[in-house]
Amino acid sequence: MTNKTLNDTIHRVTQRVIENSRDSRADYLDLMDREGERQVNRGSLSCSNLAHAFAGAEEDQEAIRAARGPNLGIVTAYNDMLSAHQPYYRYPERMKIWAREVGATVQVAGGTPAMCDGVTQGEAGMELSLFSRDTIALSTTIALSHAMYDGMALLGICDKIVPGLLMGALRFGHLPAIFVPSGPMGTGISNKEKQRTRQLYAEGKATRDELLASEMGSYHSPGTCTFYGTANSNQMMMEMMGLHVPGAAFVQPGAKLRQELSRAATHRLAAIGKSSEDFRPLARVVDEKAIVNAAIGLLATGGSTNHAIHIPAMARAAGIRFDWNDLSELSSAVPLVARVYPNGSGDVNHFHEAGGMGYVIGTLLDEGLAHRDILTIWDGGFESYSKEPGMNGDDLTWRDPGPSGDTEMLRPASDPFQADGGMRLVQGNLGRACFKSSAVKRERWTIEAPCRVFETQKDVNQAFELGELQCDVVVVVRFQGPRANGMPELHKLTPALGVLQDRGYKVALVTDGRMSGASGKVPAAIHCTPEALGGGPLSKLRDGDIVRVCAATGQLSTDADLDAREPAPAPEPETGMGRELFAMFRSNADGAEQGASSMMAMAGL
């Protein structure tokens, strides 16, 4: 173990984040201190308040009434349509038992919505997806508003759910909080085979039944989808921020180890409340260094591009300012140490078996590439997260993961897959956007070609089917930003664009929308800001304009004279599937780089 001093670039970025956040962070911590001081003592509540609060507590009623120990509030995103959240069904009843073991009690404070982007991809419901994060944050605050709790157990895994839970919980940051994951499903068919079938279907060479059989071979049981998309990137970040029990991210549901990790989370949450000698409020755990660690983990593992939006939003909820300049500069210093599908061939189960998060955190700390001095929820600090959990009989233990179990999956930071983290800022007269270079072969980092301009995924796929895209082309899909239609993921573009690339054409995507954390292969400048709605540069592009996208030089530009053009008219907002009810969220949303949140913008955070 070399234990090098902190990398100069990481130190410089962290200090900039601290300085840029000085006033807003101070205001946030002052608010949390005031909230902690006026936290309701349950004994001082009126008898009517108390009776309502524990009327349904059954055998825990007397313990809560007498305030014999900490009362922990669960905020759960359980539903049994979302495979990752199906295992949460029995968590509350088990956590009640585990809490009693240490003299505590547990109540389900409330639930949040939890939609599946995999179900809504390319469908109308996807336009609700991003703002489900704000809805989850608001639901979390409602759940915790009863002021009955000494700690927060947050049960959520997937795409907008973890960011939303954290954003809401941070407004109650005077309390401790622990995220309790449920783990990934077992590995199904190979990712390469799944991708092959998708492209065959896009070319009309596979039937719908064959495609469905392939998809069912991939998504087949309770647990998180096994590709390294946004959901699993969430779990990585909770480890990097010290908000999990160490090593909890990728242990499968149903395993004895998974149950013991959840038990340990319950016990630990009871031990770090305000009345304890080891008080660890969420507001102090999620600080500037923790946010930088989350970004470092994202870069080191080639995680989801969606977190270029979520990290700034989560940071803002804690009074911290973090932007794409910070992310891009960190990327220049943080090496890529993991290749997990879609960046590699193996899934998160293979990643975990090869050493997983314990190995990643250990090698980053060895090379001075992460902050080791963050406050975590776990005794022993961040170095505890460089271990992997296991069972010794009935006892939960942690051990050194040792060397990588698969150097095609995991490598030491001293000998990485590539020297940078592969999340690059591209900018120019078309705006600012994110480019995930870690998912794209280096020879495709630069694409210059005439553009074709579209306003829906459907129009792109129709042009593909008609053979109109059999050429070098930059596909521009605009009016997909947060204010236009809720910034949906454009995952249905990937098969068609992948086919064009495989046929030898130079292809790139430029959009103010999002691409799934599972996307890769095709070079893409995404989250383009300012968005097209309101006169952003993409609204002035025309078919045939030459567009250049270059991850190497950080360029996103056109030779066209945009200043001489009027913006194209925006499409009328679609209705149905409840989209009209989200008009308030769309109209008040801020830009992608700020986190694309209407809630934060309206609150002035």
UniProtKB/TrEMBL annotation:
Protein name stated in the entry: Phosphogluconate dehydratase
Gene source species: Qipengyuania citrea
Key words, A-Z: 4Fe-4S, Carbohydrate metabolism, Gluconate utilization, Iron, Iron-sulfur, Lyase, Metal-binding
Entry keyword annotation includes ATP-binding: no
Origin organism lineage: Bacteria, Pseudomonadati, Pseudomonadota, Alphaproteobacteria, Sphingomonadales
Gene that this polypeptide is encoded by: edd
Catalytic activity line of the entry: 6-phospho-D-gluconate = 2-dehydro-3-deoxy-6-phospho-D-gluconate + H2O
Top-rank taxon, per record: Bacteria
Dihydroxy-acid/6-phosphogluconate dehydratase N-terminal domain residues: 70-379
GO terms assigned for molecular function: phosphogluconate dehydratase activity
